[in-house]
Amino acid sequence: MLGDVSRSLSVEPDLPEDAGEPGGGQGEGATITPYRDGPLIVRGDFRLLDQDGNEIDPGRETIALCRCGKSGIKPFCDGTHKRSGFSAPSAPSRPRPAAQLLREGRRPDA
Ligand code: FES
Predict the structure, then answer these.
(1) 15 lines ligand 1 (CB under 6 A)
(2) Which helix (H) or strand (E) holds 43?
(3) Range of 86's domain?
(4) Is residue 84 part of a domain?
(5) Is 26 within the bounds of a domain?
(6) Whether 9 contacts 71, CB under 8 Å
(7) Residue 64 maps to which CATH number?
(8) What is the whole-number distance in angstroms between the Cα of residue 100 and the centre of ligand 1?
(9) 81 Cβ below 6 A of ligand 1
(10) Ligand 1 pocket test target in 11, 35, 36, 80 with most atoms within 8 Å of CB
(11) What GO CC terms are in its UniProt record (predicted)?
């Protein structure tokens, strides 16, 4: 019985096959890439902190952060997004309202 449970849980964050080389390789800080229908892939020189400022050991140089909300190992992706049918574009389909206002030279809170 326990074997069935442990087989259904992933202890390693799920990385897309095309997540690229660990670390990003550019030496210019971190990059965060929202994968279509999947996680946020973080590469490069980054620190992962909880909201209290405590370091979270990422365990690897390239990580996948859950953005579907269904992972059993948040903040990391465990691949559940595939089974849950999570759908999201890689890039925004429209500009954020605040970003649009800033481009127009207006303050978002004005
Ligand atoms: S994005 Fe992969 S489990 Fe949420």
Answers:
(1) no
(2) strand 40-44
(3) 10-110
(4) yes
(5) yes
(6) no
(7) 3.40.5.90
(8) 29
(9) yes
(10) 80
(11) cytoplasm
> Which pair of tokens denotes residue 84?
């849950």
**pTM of structure:** 0.73
Ligand 1 pocket, 41 CB below 6 A?
A: no
Query: Tokens 């481009």 label which residue?
Result: 103
pLDDT tens per residue, range 55-95: 999 999 999 999 999 999 999 999 999 999 999 999 998 88
Residue 38 lies in a domain: yes
Q: Is 77 near ligand 1, meaning CB less than 6 Å away?
A: yes
Task: Establish if 28 belongs to a structural domain.
Answer: yes
d(CA 76, CA 15): 10
What's the structural domain count of the chain? 1
Closest CA to 34 of 88, 72, 90: 90
Task: Pick from 15, 68, 73 the residue to mutate for probing ligand 1's pocket: most ligand atoms within 8 Å of its CB.
Answer: 68
**pLDDT tens digits for 22-52?**
444 455 799 999 999 999 999 999 999 999 9
